[in-house]
Amino acid sequence: MEVLRDEESKIRPLFRVTLDNGEQIKGSTPSACWKKIYKRMKFENGTSNSIDGENGLERVYESGSDMFGFSNPEVIKLIKGLSKSRLSSM
Questions:
Q1: How far is Cα 69 from Cα 43, in angstroms, rounded to an integer?
Q2: In three state form, how does the secondary structure of the chain look?
Q3: What is the greatest pairwise CA distance in the chain?
Q4: What's the order of all strands across the beta sheet hosting 13-18?
Q5: 41-83 tens-digit pLDDT
Q6: Pfam family example for this protein (predicted)?
């Protein structure tokens, strides 16, 4: 998993997961990226649950933010530290 700078916009992040076979799945948000993965998993497993319904993927799988580690307290602390250092250098 990677968080990169979007080549097109130059200012927005690009969230990317590379599969074992080298295929890359990308999204403009962590959730967009993982939703594509979960849809694919669901398709390959042949499940018939509704993706967007009340029992959709969001309830079955971890959120994209969780999967990229953004819910980890240490990661939150590091991100907040980046924001403070950026403000103090202005």
A1: 25
A2: CEEEECCCCCCCEEEEEECCCCCEEEECCHHHHHHHHHHHHHHHHCCCCCCCCCCCHHHHCCCHHHHCCCCCHHHHHHHHHHHHHHHHCC
A3: 53
A4: 2-5, 13-18, 24-27
A5: 888 877 655 454 454 544 567 889 999 999 999 988 888 888 6
A6: FYRC
